[in-house]
Amino acid sequence: MKSDARKKTITADTVRYVAGLSRLSFDDKETDMFRAQLASILDYIDKLNEVDTEGVEPTTHALPSLRNVFRDDIPGSSLSNEEALRNAPSVKDGFFKVPRIIKDA
Amino acid sequence: MTDIFRTIDSSTLFLEKEKKTREEAALFIARRISGMDDVIRAFPLLDEEGVASRAADKVQALGKTPLSMAPVGVKNNICIKGALTTCASRVLEGFRPPYDAHVIEKLKLSGAILVDGANMDEFAFGSSCETSCYGPTRNPWDTERIPGGSSGGAVAAVASGEVAAALGSDTGGSIRQPAAMCGVVGFKPTYGRVSRYGLIAFASSLDQIGPVTRNVTDCARMLEVIAGYDERDSTSVDRKVPRFSESLSGGVKGMKIGIPKEYFTEGIDPGVKERVEEAIEVYRGLGADTVDISLPHTRYAVSCYYIIAPAEASSNLARYDGVHYGHRSKDASDLIRMYTASRNEGFGQEAKRRILLGTYSLSSGYYEAYYLKALKVRTRIADDFREAFKACDCVLTPTSPTTAFRIGERADDPLKMYLSDVFTIPANMAGLPAVSIPCGTGENDMPVGLQLMAGPFEEEVILRAAYAFESNTGHHKRVPVMLREGAQGV
């Protein structure tokens, strides 16, 4: 069955892979906990396969009659440099400061 | 405890008479909360001076205003300039927004006094208010029980009489489910009716801000203030806002009320079922016609939601990287390690679970099987309602299958927790307006909520039906013991 095939795909490696994509990392205990929980949640979610969706359009917006929203490209007011940086954990010379990205040659 | 803030009008009357300035009124409100909130913990970050100084802002105090001096609690995911706004997550520690949300601008113009920082599940991920990094809020009816979630703080604050009204946000029931569990009125407007500008995003295609109040009239008045077009939210709908509070009294004679059989299933508490069946009888007695309808895809709503909402959340939460705001790990030897460590330390377990689930369902190889499939099932759920509204004006259901459960009872079983939103999720899927109103008490003498849903932008229909029920039953007047005559307090 299709659902069994899926269940097998939730391995510790899957959790580690998805955690990496999400910029999270777990120790073995957490990995195992999330693996078990995701497997049980996805098992429940598998119910969706009972629904015939042949020819059904996906809903990305609850009220599909809406049209696209455009506006004229007119500059307005924005946050000052000081306001924009006020919440930053680390700043230098009016910029956000982050750890070194490029290693020394 | 004198219940001085039981309505917007009773609050205004008291504060305008007793307090000379807005600042004085705000300080009174904040100090009163501080004396009441030790156990409930609706406002774990309460900053009395901050509440007072923001209320003193001169631009807010011009002329006679609709919510003059009324104390309004604000969920901690709605930006108030300068107020600590963290979504109850360590990842946003210390964040003070540089701007006001659209709804906050509107509330300030209406004369309300804002009490910021109402507790919530972290990033609104939860149905019990237990995932907050500040610890749980407690239900004013029984402090061993959860207030519901995710807007648990906002709702408990209203139910305990700390504030007259509050703003929450509702992605899958986060206003209505706690309102049901705490015996107050909670309203989720049509998607697009209220601007989400300044609401910290969870699932952008589902999120909507709405009011929590003690009665339907105040609900309509709050809605009147916060609704309306705002170009800064591209999903905001440019449509005239009715005078909701002026169209409440039309009654329900001849109104067709749909009763979907799928909402009266086996998983529902007997006490909840009885109260809702009694409510149906009340409506019949008032001259409404009840119509049996079917919403056959209801049973897929939770599955559908737990693909779509975490997928959107995992994308929205990618911005928390320790660079622009919030928590940055000390373990920051290089950039990638800094991102990962900051997120690991900042997010709680439920947030991590949802990020994983969302990233998984969007990842290569699973996108079609999960995410695209869920979007198609979402269409079927919305189609159910379109079909139903051919035969009825509104739909009546229980808000939640159970009354409030004990703190800790479902904390270790995410799936069981997710199932407590089974009756509220469909309205978010279809973008519909929905309200929960008190309809008595059920299991453990805890409040039961009655849910009414209508077609898009048909808020007036459910407000009219809710008002008719409220004025003919008076369930909303029943309050927790702490507010009853003779109880100790301020």
Overview of the structural elements:
The complex is a heterodimer of chains A (105) and B (490). With 105 residues, chain A is mainly α. Chain A has a two-stranded antiparallel ribbon. In chain A, strand 1 and strand 2 form a beta hairpin. In chain A, helix 2 crosses helix 3. Chain A is flat, with a radius of gyration of 23 Å. Chain B has a ten-stranded mixed β-sheet, with helices on both faces. The longest helix of chain B is centred in the C-terminal third of the chain and has 22 residues. Chain B is α/β, with parallel strands linked by helices and 490 residues long. Chain B has a domain of 265 residues: Amidase signature (AS) enzymes (Alpha-Beta Complex). At the A-B interface, helix 2 and helix 3 of A face helix 9, helix 10, helix 11, helix 12 and helix 13 of B.
What keywords describe this structure?
heterodimer, A: 105 residues, mainly alpha, Histone, subunit A, 4 helices, 2 strands, 39% helix, 4% strand, flat, disordered N terminus, B: 490 residues, alpha/beta, Amidase signature (AS) enzymes, ten-stranded mixed β-sheet, 10 strands, 36% helix
> Helical content of chain A, roughly?
25-40%
How do the strands line up in the largest sheet of chain B? 2-1-3-5-4-9-10-8-6-7
Instruction: Report Rg of chain B.
Output: 21 Å
Give the rounded overall mean pLDDT of chain B.
95
In N-to-C order, the SSE pattern of chain B is HHHEHEHEHEEHEHEHHHHEHHEEH
List the helices and strands and how they pair.
The complex is a heterodimer of chains A (105) and B (490).
Chain A: H1 2-9, H2 12-21, H3 28-45, H4 81-85, E1 91-92, E2 95-96
Helix pairs in contact in A: 2-3
Chain B: H1 8-18, H2 22-40, H3 48-55, E1 71-75, H4 102-109, E2 113-118, H5 152-159, E3 165-170, H6 176-182, E4 185-188, E5 208-213, H7 216-226, E6 256-260, H8 270-285, E7 289-293, H9 301-316, H10 335-346, H11 349-362, H12 367-388, E8 394-398, H13 414-418, H14 425-430, E9 434-441, E10 447-454, H15 459-473
Parallel strand pairs in B: 1-2, 1-3, 6-7, 6-8
Antiparallel strand pairs in B: 3-5, 4-5, 4-9, 8-10, 9-10
Helix pairs in contact in B: 2-3, 9-11, 9-12
